[in-house]
Amino acid sequence: MAITNPDTAAAPKIPQLPEELIASTTFLLKRLGFAAKERTMKAYEGTGLHPYHHAILLVLDERSRETQGSIADALGYDRGQLVGLLDELEERGLVERRRDPNDRRRHIVRLTGEGKRMLRRLRALATQIEDEFLSPLSEKERVNLHALLLRLAEKHEPRCALSSSPVRT
Predict the structure, then answer these.
(1) What are the φ and ψ backbone dihedral angles of 100, each rounded to 5 degrees?
(2) How far apart are CA 54 and CA 129, in angstroms?
(3) Per-residue pLDDT of the chain (169 residues; tens, 9 = 90+)
(4) Would you give the DSSP letter of residue 77?
(5) Dihedral sign for Cα atoms in the order 146, 124, 41, 89
(6) Which CATH number fits domain 26-160: 1.10.10.10, 3.40.50.1240, 3.30.420.40, 3.40.50.300?
(7) CA-atom Rg of the chain in angstroms
C-alpha cells in the first residue's frame, strides 16, 4: 500500500470546457452571471433577506413614497411576487404599507428607520460581494468593464442602463 504525502498530492483536476464555449463572450457572461448569483445568494443568507428585498429597499430609498405597482414596474417584478416580498419586509419591520388616502385601491410603501439601517448593511454587503468577485481586476479594469456593460445594457436591457451619471464607479 502506497502512502501519499498530502503536501505533494495533486488537487482534483477541474474538467475543462470546450474551447469554443470559452471563446464565446455570451457564454462567459452567462456562466459568470450564474457564479455571481450563487455567491450573492449565499452571502445574503446571513441577513435573512435576499437581493430581491435589497432592490425593493433601494427603490424606496430613492423615492420616499411608492405604490406597490410602481415598485413592481420599476424592478420588473410580477405584482403578485412583490406583494409576498413586501409582506416579508413588513414582518421584519423594514417597510410599512398604508392605503393611499387619494386612492383607497392603492398602497403606499415607506421605508422604516429599521429598513434604512438594514439598507446600509445590505449596501455594505453588496460592495463586499462585488469587491471579492471583481478582485482579479484593477480599479481601471473594473471601471472599463462597468462602462462596457452599461453600453450593452442600453441596447439589450434598458431598465439597467443609467439615465444620468453613475452612482458608483
Answers:
(1) -70, 120
(2) 14
(3) 555 555 556 677 888 889 999 999 999 999 999 999 999 999 999 999 999 999 999 999 987 568 888 899 889 999 999 999 999 999 999 999 998 888 888 889 999 999 999 999 999 999 999 999 999 999 999 999 999 999 999 999 888 877 654 444 3
(4) -
(5) negative
(6) 1.10.10.10
(7) 21
